[in-house]
Automatic annotation (TrEMBL):
The lineage of its organism: Bacteria, Pseudomonadati, Bacteroidota, Flavobacteriia, Flavobacteriales. This is YtxH domain-containing protein. Keywords: Membrane, Transmembrane, Transmembrane helix. The chain crosses the membrane at residues 6-27. It comes from the Bacteria. It holds the Pfam family YtxH. InterPro entries: Desiccation-related_membrane (IPR052928), YtxH (IPR024623).
Amino acid sequence: MTNDNGNTLLALLTGAAIGAGIGILYAPDKGVKTRKRIKKKAIQTSDDLTSRISHATEELTKTAEAKKVDFEHKLEETLSNMSYKADDIISALEKKLSDLKNKNAQLQK
């Protein structure tokens, strides 16, 4: 979930909680019953937020782990390719050195 989606979700939940609270306060029930409703709604909203935050945390953890594994795989692949290229360069330099030694030996005669 992106930050904008999280902020939007939080704003919607906050607005819903405030709207429900105001609605309950203006309801024609007794004070004890109204307080119980407010408490029940607050607990439900808290539980819902906790659940959503937990789910978002799990999703972010999964995404981060997947990105980490992908990065490690690409890094290993890049290092492997670099190793092969280094071997090719070393082989080419050794061949060139051998050719130069042969030329030098011919010139020494």
